[in-house]
Amino acid sequence: MENDDINLIANAAHTGSVTGGNVLDEGRVGTSGLQTKGIHVWFGKHHVLEDISLDFPANSVTGLIGPSGCGKSTFLRVLNRMHEFIPGAAMAGEVFLDGEEIYGPKVDVTAMRLKVGMVFQKPNPFPSMTIAENVLAGLKLANIKVQDKDSLLEECLTRAGLWKEVKDRLKLSGSSLSGGQQQRLCIARALAVKPKVLLMDEPCSALDPASTLKVEETIVQLSSDMTIVVVTHNMQQAARVSDFCAFFLSDGGPGQIVEADRTAVIFSSPSDQRTADYVQGRFG
Amino acid sequence: MSTVTVEKPTDDGPVRRVITTQRNASDKRFRRVVTAGALSTFLVLALIASFLFYRGFEIFKEFGFGFLTTSTWDSGSGDSLEGASYGVAAMLVGSIIVATMAMIMALPFVIGTSLFLEYYIGKKLRTALVAILDLMAAIPSIIYGLWGYLVLMPNAAGWAESINKYFGWIPIFKVDVENFDASPFISALVLGLMIIPIASSVTREVYSRAPQDQISAAYALGGSRWGALKAVVLPFGKSGLIGGMLLGLGRALGETVAVLLTLNLVFEVKFQVLASAGGNVASLIASRFGEAGPFEVKALMAAGLVLFLLTLVVNFGASIIVSRTSKVSQ
Q: Which domain holds residue B9?
């Protein structure tokens, strides 16, 4: 019964008829397994997001852009159920990951979060752990046994673009690194549990331009085999790293998606005047 | 033609100004009040130490280091130090044993209480429970002592008997005589209970300041609540836990009446914690002071000084450990 419902929605998505949905790529609907349908979020009585439906294409970067307070970070947190730690948070709608509704009553939230990694705005390595321990922290937290820890360590740090810089000081504390290195350490940490999806909440806003560039390179490389959703305030960054963009806007009321499309389209020929104004820096 | 310029001495360089600040009158007055308050605290501490030293000096002169290493407590005729013999070894060792056991027993409860209050219940319930916990800290120690004597001891003697039965092969759980009342074990149970509120209150406060972004990171990595607490909160709060426990230790070492009621003082160094024999410096003073002659009072003062110094050393050690671990965890 439940599975039938999911197929129905998936089929509906394939024919491009999800109500109010934003289909980013007609040819790749449902490929990443990450879809949202009619998401609303409230904090107490405050309605912060209204009817957000998105289908994230696989192996690509989707940028969530929009002015402050439009709910894009909240939406990102809905995707791995991190928003529910905020007191008074409530939501409506559905999020599907590999056909399973992640807000379903039988869902193991911790197992779900292993599939959906997250990188935060401010680098947050565990200060009591070494660089190596930080990378492998997720495995320890989820009680996952790995045969060859050293090669996993090297693989994750290499993919995060940090291996060369830290390979001789893996035993040092994670907080001994620079801010940019710490952020890439956090990316490596998120990769160690092999997530399908990586959520990034303004991953470069606390970094200097050189570190930003490195993290952006990392994002582009990672997107070759995983689905990445990145919230950013930086229009140039959105243009540089994302394949698709969803433009969020709140005009006093709850945040909504104004327009979602390929990044090139959003930046060159958006269909809504507000999108054009925002990406060209006329407001926000 | 080239000239070599030799660097001149800097005497004609810019002169560094001496900056002075004129404090205004009210600031001066406030400064004096604050300074006086702080100084009088230290003055009282110094006065206590010198009083104890002055009163006990004769004892140290007479018995020397033997006062710390022997265990006989005999006033002799009571008229002079002639024929008398005083030593606090048994009491000192007993104090340390009871306090250490109390700490060990309290530790899991302190960690559990702190984590529970901070991470497992809502704000309203927390406020109520914290108030109750603070109330527990305010209960006079005589109440703990009476409860320990009347309620806990009859039951705990049975527990001690079981421990002795199954773990008696461990030297500290052996007993020579099968009397389990008024043992260091029971005293430590009472002291442990007394420590929990104060230690939990300090520990909880520090746990509550654990960085939220790191807790989020642990959750986002697929961590359970316990996983997040273990990875972030426990390492972060280590210095707070040590600080809280040592604050408790200070109380446990100096506790007098609760121990007096629940411990059978015996002037012999013993490490059998379940047996009905133990030592405690503070309780010794309390139990002997009433009927002591002038020379025994001197000996009790000397014992007081020893306890005073022991507490001082423990507290200094505590602050060093706390400052070190808090540096590491940041």
A: 2-63
B37 and B180: one domain?
no
Q: Chain-wide mean pLDDT for chain A?
A: 86
Cβ-Cβ contacts under 8 Å for B246 (sequence gap 6 or more) = B314, B315, B317, B318, B321, B322
- Residues of chain A contacting residue B223, judged by C-beta atoms under 8 Å apart: 110, 138, 141-142
Distance, in Å, from the CA atom of B56 to the CA atom of B303, rounded to the nearest integer, reads: 8
Confirm whether B42 is domain-assigned.
Answer: yes
Return phi, psi of residue B149, to 5°: -75, -45
Which parts of A15-80 fold into alpha helices (H)?
A: 72-78
Q: Tell me which residue in B223, B228, B330 faces A127 most closely, judged by beta carbons.
A: B330
CB interface of A with B, residues 242-271, below 8 Å: none
The 10s digit of each residue's pLDDT in A110-150 is 999 999 999 999 999 998 899 999 999 999 888 888 888 99
Give me the residues paired with residue A245 across strands: A63, A261
Positions of chain B with pLDDT lower than 50, given as ranges: 1, 329-330
Nearest CA in chain B to A192: B221
Q: How far is A272 from chain B (nearest CA, A)?
A: 35
All residues at 6 or more sequence positions from B316 whose CB lies less than 8 Å from its CB, including other chains: none
- For residue range A246-281, what is the model confidence (pLDDT) as tens digits? 999 988 889 999 999 999 999 998 989 999 999 888
Complex-level ipTM: 0.83
Whether B111 is in a domain gets the answer yes
Question: Quick one: B151 and B298 in the same domain?
Answer: yes
Q: Cβ of B222 and A140 within 8 Å? A: no
CATH value at residue B261: 1.10.3720.10
pLDDT, tens only, A188-221: 999 999 999 999 999 998 888 888 998 899 999 9
The answer, for A203 touching chain B at a CB cutoff of 8 Å, is: no
Q: Give the three-state DSSP class for A188.
A: helix
Any domain includes B222: yes
pTM over cut 0.95? no
The whole-angstrom distance between A195's CA and the closest CA on chain B is 10
Interface A-B, measured as beta-carbon pairs within 8 A, has a size of 73
B224 close to A (CB below 8 A)? yes
Question: Is some CB atom of chain A closer than 8 A to the CB atom of B144?
Answer: no
Cβ of A113 and B222 within 8 Å?
yes
One domain, residues B255 and B151? yes
pLDDT at residue B326, as a whole number: 63
Q: Of A101, A106, A100, A89, which is closest to residue A43 (Cα–Cα)?
A: A89
The total domain count for chain B is: 2
Question: Within its chain, how far is the Cα of B145 from the centroid?
Answer: 18
Residues B258 and B143 in one domain: yes
Residues B177 and B263 placed together within one structural domain of the fold: yes
